[in-house]
Write a structure and sequence with these properties.
heterodimer; A: mainly alpha; about 80% helix; B: two-stranded antiparallel sheet; 4 helices; 2 strands; about 60% helix
């Protein structure tokens, strides 16, 4: 295999999976880079094969380059998927009552959607201009979500009956099951702490959105996050004091706020997808 | 600040001296750091493209050796980000210096 074929193979690995126009633009750019670097190495007295090896070593792993390129150039696709998944989880909240007798399925589906949406939100909000607290807030939400799901699942498996439904189902289900007649156990205690962490993460994110988030509908999203976060914290306090009325009322508050939150997130992701450039030729010509 | 974070700062700084293409940006960073900042050049382009998407730099094409080449230049927002990143880097390096000198943080 000659040097050019070997470089073409590197290029092909580095750009695999990217849309054609972007792939073509990156290949041209990297080919120009390769030619310059190769000429420089030859100028230093290296043989063609040595110069080629030195340039590929400087470029690094094609797989690492591909991962980084995909993270940048497939953002539009990810935001569109995030909008779809957010819409699905919005519907899931609305029709949650239908899942009342399949809480495990309901939870696993909700967790899958939730994690994808949160990771997309992290990608959307994290930029050199935003506070590092964005990452902290989203990690708190994710840990809280996973903790609530894990201990909620433990609750189901251990016949505690209610934890998952309290976290994710709608208030109609809560009211029907009237679930808080059982003693407070370790599972419920950790579940409550997880929900507090989840709610605190949303509150922190709402606080950050008030300062420097480069997104549209910021005020509306922030309000829904605040109410949602407060609802979650209130719900977990309800669990700890074993008060069904508090749990149901807070469940109602956070469900309504959650509906608005998901709706605004759909709009934000759609907007972000539209703004993410997939057109590599938007630069001007000098 | 990790090296990934500082790569953004270094790119913006190099471009503050004037428009340039990827290879020259990489070369400038390596030469001016006496080869100490020896990053893999393949990862330069995703960072450049990300900065372009964020509006920190913009692209124009220029003919060179019979082919069109992508050049990058700093935007107004990019200049503001450069100032912000430089301040952050100054604070960070001063804090590390303080620790290494055994001084009390102010």
């Amino acid at each position: 295999m000659n040097n050019q074929q070997d470089f073409q193979r590197w290029l092909s690995s580095a750009t695999r999976g990217l849309p054609s126009p972007i792939k073509s633009m990156i290949c041209d750019e990297l080919a120009a880079h390769y030619d310059d670097a190769f000429a420089e190495q030859r100028g230093l007295g290296l043989l063609p094969v040595e110069a080629h090896r030195a340039v590929l070593a400087q470029l690094g792993s094609p797989h690492a380059t591909r991962r980084a390129l995909c993270a940048v150039h497939l953002a539009r696709r990810q935001f569109l998927w995030a909008a779809v998944v957010t819409m699905i989880s919005l519907v899931e909240i609305i029709i949650g009552a239908l899942f009342a007798f399949q809480p495990l399925l309901f939870t696993l589906f909700g967790i899958g959607c939730g994690m994808y949406v949160l990771e997309s939100l992290r990608k959307l909000l994290e930029s050199p201009r935003t506070s590092a607290r964005v990452g902290t807030a989203i990690t708190m939400i994710e840990i809280g979500l996973l903790g609530a799901a894990a201990f909620g699942t433990l609750g189901i498996l251990g016949s505690y009956q209610y934890p998952i439904i309290i976290v994710f189902a709608d208030p109609l289900v809560l009211a029907r099951f009237d679930p808080y007649l059982q003693p407070l156990t370790f599972v419920h205690f950790i579940l409550a702490l997880s929900i507090i962490m989840n709610g605190s993460g949303w509150l922190l994110l709402a606080d950050i959105l008030g300062v420097d988030a480069p997104i549209h509908f910021r005020g509306l999203l922030r309000s829904s996050l605040l109410v949602n976060g407060l609802g979650l914290v209130g719900l977990s306090l309800g669990i700890l004091i074993r008060n069904s009325a508090v749990i149901i009322q807070m469940g109602l508050v956070l469900t309504i706020a959650g509906l608005f939150r998901q709706a605004f997130l759909v709009l934000i992701f759609v907007r972000a997808a539209r703004q993410s450039s997939n057109n590599p030729w938007r630069g001007s010509h000098a | 600040m990790n090296f990934r974070g500082s790569l953004t700062l270094l790119i913006l700084f190099v471009l503050s001296k004037g428009p340039n293409h990827g290879y020259q940006i990489a070369k400038a960073i390596k030469q001016q750091s006496d080869g100490i900042l020896d990053f893999k050049e393949g990862t330069l382009y995703p960072t450049l493209h990300g900065l372009e998407q964020q509006g920190m730099i913009e692209v124009f094409e220029q003919a060179e050796n019979g082919r069109s080449r992508r050049y990058y230049r700093l935007t107004q927002d990019g200049r503001a980000l450069l100032d912000q990143e430089r301040d952050e880097w100054a604070r960070y390096s001063s804090a590390v210096d303080n620790v290494l000198k055994g001084a009390q943080p102010s």
